[in-house]
Amino acid sequence: MDTIWQPSLLTGQGPKYKAVMQAIRDSIAANSLMPGEKLPPVRDLAWKLGITPGTVARAYTLLTDDGTLVAEVGRGTFVSAPDHKEPLLRELPIEVDSATHNAEAQDDQVNLFSPHLPSVGQAGLIRQLLAEVAQDPPSGVMHYPTRVGGRPARAAAARWLASPMLGPVGADDIVLAHGGQNAIMLIFQAVLRGRKPAVLVEELAYPGFRRAAELLRAEVIPVAMDEAGILPEALEAAARTHDAQILCTSPEVHNPTCGYSPLARRQELAAIARRYDLQILEDDCYRLGDAQAPTYRKLAPERSWYVSSLSKSITPALRFGIAVAPPGQAPTLRRTAEYAFFGLATPMTDLCAKLLDDPRLAPVASRAREEIGQYVRSAVNILGGYDLAWRADVPFLWLRLPTGWRAGAFVQAAETQGVRIRSAEEYASRDARVPHAVRFAINAGVSLSSFEAAIGRLRDLLDNPPELIGV
User: Fold this and answer.
1) HSE-CB for 311 with a 13 A CA cutoff
2) Which pLDDT tens digit goes with each residue over 148-183?
3) d(Cα 439, Cα 407) in Å, to the nearest integer?
4) Distance, CA of 10 to CA of 39 (rounded, Å)
5) Residue 100 has pLDDT above 70, yes or no
6) 49 SS3 class
7) Quick one: 92-133+359-471 is in which CATH superfamily?
8) Could you give the CA distance from residue 451 to residue 102 in angstroms, rounded to a whole number?
9) Is 212 in contact with 185 (CB distance < 8 Å)?
């Protein structure tokens, strides 16, 4: 059935999308909209009501979620028949499907380089939302990305990030990027000035900091650290000695050591950053659970840049990164992104606006976190009394090697056993003294039994260090 429904102008207080939802429900109750009847296309209804297409799309999505409407790819959105009133959440797959997203599914080949999330419903949810976007994209498919068109995704990202530990963040504080690494690069481009700027990083740090700095011909200065993060006296010495402009740090989940900087340490470092006019880039891409302490954006909002993404919590496939600028600095960051790539593809921002606001996403993320925790606990049980740093809500572990093993040799030996891991050398500057340690990530894209077998092979290597054979 085609539509003959002609809604009146919206009335009442509150969000407009709720008014659209109520108008549709009222029309169904009054038999003005009958089961099987087609709703107007999003853009047509938006023009008729004088509101944005995103507002109408959100109303349609929420009504589809609760079973009031049903979306059919290529045909449109329709009033559900009485037997279609089941929420779509029940249609999402909830089983872990290890074969669908792991490129190395053989039992004897397990890649522990980077975290791989379990498939616990996000794939089905993304497919459904992709179909909705393909059917009726709120931003259209014939225009360059615009700030206005991307605002629903930025607003959804702000709601997704919302936390007392982060402090106030709104859509206008956010710039969207092609993943967390791209967000770091944009921040460097917005902040760094001069012919040879300096970037301060932790002594062991995420390699992406160095790579982004090197692309911009910036000098990378490692700063000494302990189990609580950067040493305040080392940061002060580096700030005095070098023309440093920004400090890069991961205080909530330190990559690669799995460490954490308590509040007192963060406050000391924030005070030094103020004293030497250092900007702070906080990478918070690895945290799966709640934050344990206030972010630098909360402690020193005037100089703190915050980066997050969906890669470690939902999926890395979307390449959806979030950069939060200090108050008043978002226009500079936004211009940097626009000069670099104009903006994210409009179907991607439409998809992420739907995804981040979808009520089914939080339970899926929680389920993924629980599955990751199961893999972590299995690794800890197998590796027994070895010197291991781990947290149940962090998708990697840090292993300090016993006497008889060097990091490079252990990595090579592990690869001969079909297990790929990372040496501590990958996280240190070229001239640094590197600990004999390795990082291995959780690969929940393989079955738990395959993962446990891989960790068992690492245990066999640890039990038989080559430098002790024959002693």
Assistant:
1) 21
2) 889 999 999 999 999 999 999 999 999 999 999 999
3) 10
4) 16
5) no
6) helix
7) Aspartate Aminotransferase, domain 1 (3.90.1150.10)
8) 12
9) yes
Task: Tell me the backbone φ, ψ of residue 176, rounded to 5 degrees.
Answer: -90, 145
Tell me the CA distances in angstroms from 66 to 30, 92, 93, 101, one per residue in order.
19, 14, 17, 29
- The first and second tokens of residue 407, run together, are 């990091």
For the packed helices 361-383 and 122-135, what is the interaxial angle rounded to 10 degrees? 150
What is the rounded distance in angstroms from the CA atom of residue 225 to the CA atom of residue 244? 18
Residue 348 burial by CB count (10 A; 0-12/13-18/19+): exposed, middle or buried? buried
Q: Give residue limits of the domains in the chain.
A: 1-86, 92-133+359-471, 146-344
The terminus-to-terminus CA distance of the chain in angstroms comes to: 84
Distance from C-alpha of 85 to C-alpha of 192, rounded to nearest angstrom: 55
450 contacts 107 by C-beta, under 8 angstroms: yes
How does strand 387-389 pair with strand 396-400?
antiparallel
pLDDT value, residue 85: 44
Strand partners, 230: 225
More confident call, 107 vs 252: 252
